[in-house]
Amino acid sequence: MSSPMRVEMPGVIGLLRLAISFYKTHYKSFFVIGLLPIAISIIGLVLNQLLVYSGGATGLVILYVLLSIVLGLAGFVAQVIVPYALVKNAGEKGGGVHNPVQTVILQTLKRFWSILWVTILLVGIMIGSGIFLLIPAIILAGYNGYAMFPLMIEDKRGLSALLASFYYVRGNWWRVILRSLALAVLMIIVMGFITTLLLLCGYFILGGAFNVESVATFFNTVAQAPIKFYVVIGTFAVIANIIYWSVITPITLLYSYFIYKHLKEGKPQPVPESKTFRGWMLGLCIFGLIIMFLFVLTPFVFGVVSGFTKAREKALSNQQTGIENSTYRSESLFPSVASPFPVGDISLLTTNFSSHKTLKFSIRTPKTWEVFPDDDGMIINPPNIKNAPEAGFFIERIDLNLEALKMTESTIAEDVANTATQYNKDLKEVKFMKYVLGGKNMYVLSGTYLGFKNSPSISEFFIVIDNLQAYVITARSSVKDWTVAKPLIYSSISTFNVVK
Q1: Is the pLDDT of residue 325 over 50?
Q2: Residue 82: is its pLDDT beyond 60?
Q3: Distance between CA atoms of 285 and 291, rounded to whole angstroms?
Q4: Of 398, 413, 405, whose CA–CA distance to 329 is shortest?
Q5: Chain CA centroid to CA 297, Å
Q6: Which of 213, 256, 350, 430 has the highest local Cβ count within 10 Å?
Q7: pLDDT tens-digit readout, 88-141
């Protein structure tokens, strides 16, 4: 390499003025190029919403997955090539060439693999130098940071682009780095201001204000109108991305373009290349890539080995636990003999069944009692003005895993009862009962606890096992209301039926 040469160039303000002036002159092409990744992301969002409103039909889901893969790859490529397309556009416009935007993008796309190769070389060199100390990595980053300009403007490929960047920056490292850092700080401040402004606009549109009460109730408003929240926030996110990709990024790259232009014009041409220096750079890159590969591979190998070890230990543990459980559970907590379920007065119930189509069960409920089905199950409560206001019951379904096929029904019922009572660990006077209802065993766990305002209360869990599903009916009542509530609850539960 030749000896260092100091190059005169404008200061931070002068470079910014040049960048902004150039952008204003050719803003249409820069703005449109910056819209490419945003357009792809918007198409993805639209497809996602179409899938949601279509109800998730199988054919559409498959099509959506395929399109998502295509759009994901397109989005990745767009984010890689757009900065380089902006640089190419700057170089052409600065040289008096005015190609259409689509031509600039297509020509940049043709160089995708060259761009990717230069990126890999940069990453390898950064890691290879950073292994020793952070300072060498920072120094080389300053020297090689302008490789995209020789690549896109001078058509230099691979190491030649990196060596050209090194040659231009040599003798001007501090001046280039300080100008770059000043720009970075300025852009962080500008983007922070724009983001804060957009967030405040969204906050006010959603009903916020500068007072404590408004801030406290803001999230409740959002919870009540989530669609409006997502629309407003999504809109401002798109605006922020447009500002970033179509305004901030082009001006930032134009700032660097004018640094590159002054460096190039101040250095003798063509760029001299040293085979020895080129070999050192290539060796450093290969070393860095090997280190990166080892960093990625080592945790994977350790993870696989650790996974096999843990799997073996778990298998041995499960085998031992199975032996212990088979001994421990030889005597079930539930009675071995089932009694007939105490059917109450059916006339107290509605004539029609209340069904849950998703969880596949039906039941007749006490007259005047209110039924509230939801995704998790069904709540049945008495009216609040009479008939045991502190009583009620809830029906849910627990899906069992395949291990249940190896277990006895009473063992499954014990596990389900343990799961169902995990939030009632203070149950006292616990009793285990077993009934027969409609040809199926019904396991019942009963206990007392302190309920609302520490009032003595009763809780009973009725469990029905049906293949790999367990239905749990949780009944609760204060002790003073149990006399009234129990006949109604038991009568209702006696009509419980699993719908096939």
Answers
A1: no
A2: yes
A3: 10
A4: 413
A5: 25
A6: 256
A7: 999 988 888 888 999 999 999 999 999 999 888 888 888 877 776 678 888 888
Query: DSSP string spanning 196-222?
Result: HHHHHHHHHHTT--SSHHHHHHHHHHH
Check: CB of residue 263 under 8 Å from CB of residue 167.
Answer: no
> What is the reported pLDDT for 392?
86
Q: Estimate to the nearest angstrom the gap between the alpha carbon of 341 and the chain centroid.
A: 49
Rounded to the nearest integer, the mean pLDDT of the chain is 81
Helix ranges (DSSP H) in 131-225: 134-144, 148-153, 158-169, 173-205, 212-224
CA angle 292, 298, 303 (to 5 degrees): 140
pLDDT at residue 90 in the model: 92
pLDDT digits (tens, 9 = 90+) for 162-209: 899 899 998 899 999 999 999 999 999 999 998 888 878 877 776 654
Contacts of 385 (CB under 8 A, 6+ apart): none
DSSP SS3 for 270: coil
> 359-398: b or e for each residue (b if 16 or more CB lie within 10 Å)?
bebbbbbbeebeeebeeebbbbbbeeeebbebbbbbbbbb
CB 457 within 8 A of CB 448: yes
Amino acid at 376: D
pLDDT interval class at 212 (50, 70, 90)? very low
User: One-letter amino acid identity for 486?
Assistant: K
Angle of helix 134-144 relative to helix 112-130, nearest 10 degrees, comes to 150
Q: In 322-339, which positions are buried (b, 16+ CB within 10 angstroms) versus exposed (e)?
A: eeeeeeeeeebbbeeebe
Nearest Cα to 350, choosing from 379, 324, 322, 380?
380
Pairing mode of beta strands 377-381, 361-363: unpaired
With CA atoms as reference, report the closest residue to 29 among 79, 81, 80, 103.
103
Does residue 260 surpass a pLDDT of 90? yes
- Contact between residue 31 and residue 254 where contact means Cβ atoms under 8 Å apart: no
C-alpha distance from residue 121 to each of 2, 73, 128, 151, 416 (Å): 23, 22, 10, 13, 58
Q: Are strands 469-478 and 392-399 parallel, antiparallel or unpaired?
A: antiparallel
3-state secondary structure of 422: coil
- The reply to whether omega before 250 is within 30° of 0 (cis) is no
Burial class (CB in 10 A: 0-12, 13-18, 19+), 423: exposed
Max mean pLDDT among 155-164, 227-236, 275-284 falls in 155-164
DSSP H helical ranges for 273-426: 275-328, 409-420
Contacts of 237 (CB under 8 A, 6+ apart): none
Helices 101-110 and 112-130 cross at an angle (nearest 10°) of 60
